[in-house]
Amino acid sequence: MEKAQIIGVDLGGTNLRAGIVNKSVREPVVSQPLYAQGTRADILEQIFGIIDKIINPGVKGIGIGVPGLVDPISRIPYDVVNIPSINETDLRAILEQRYGVAVNIENDANCFAWGEFHFGAGRSCKSIAGLTIGTGLGTGIIADGKLLTGKHGGAGEFGMISYLDKNIEYYVSGRFFSNVYHTTGELVYKRALEGNPEAINMYEEFGRHLGAAIKLILYVLDTECIVIGGAAKAAFPFYSKSMWEALADFGFGRSLASLKIEASSLINANILGAAALHLPTADRCQQ
């Protein structure tokens, strides 16, 4: 990708972001609020508008991450809860016709994991799990160097698994703070930075729930590396200790001893991962 220019697009439920990628994201990354409840035509016009701002004759492809499932064969997104009008819309065909370059579409959590695999914490690994922890919980899985999507594109939805009296996402996402403590993650983070003991205790509890979720992921996948992304990555120092403590009773010591868990250091992991959908596994950015 050092010579080829690929546009990576992060289609989020709140914002739309895009950048040109070769070995890294070339500045500037363009961003704008997304009218998520708009019509199909509204959403397409916003996607066209942001791509039109940066495309040039050297661009050879476009990759897009969407907040929903993507059919592995047709590449058509579905169950896009936060942007309902693009459900069952063949974005790939529409964009290929408009721009005349190859287009790839993938779930946004998968793009995050793929970006970490090619450019970030997963560069030295063959198997990683990328956890995007924000309003919800998404997980992208790389197994033996390949993106694992499942038959219907729904692999990695660990947040939907029953846990305690609810499910994992209830306790391992930004919703934990509103569900359990009737506050917001932003406010808790601000107070934790100020040294507020109550806020720090909330993060420690959050870390114990995250550790329980990671144990499940390890029992299923035995992955080498887990990367935390999304809004929760900034608060990693506040919950990492309790997270590791919750992992202490994991049944397989060899797996735990070699496990790497860290917060993402990539600023534009989803954009990088969307662009890297055009990359073969062997063409990873080396450390």
From TrEMBL:
- What Pfam family is a match, any one? ROK
Q: Which InterPro entries does this entry report, sorted A to Z?
A: ATPase_NBD (IPR043129), ROK (IPR000600)
Q: Which family does it belong to?
A: Belongs to the ROK (NagC/XylR) family.
The protein's name is: ROK family protein
Q: Which organism is it from?
A: Chitinophaga hostae
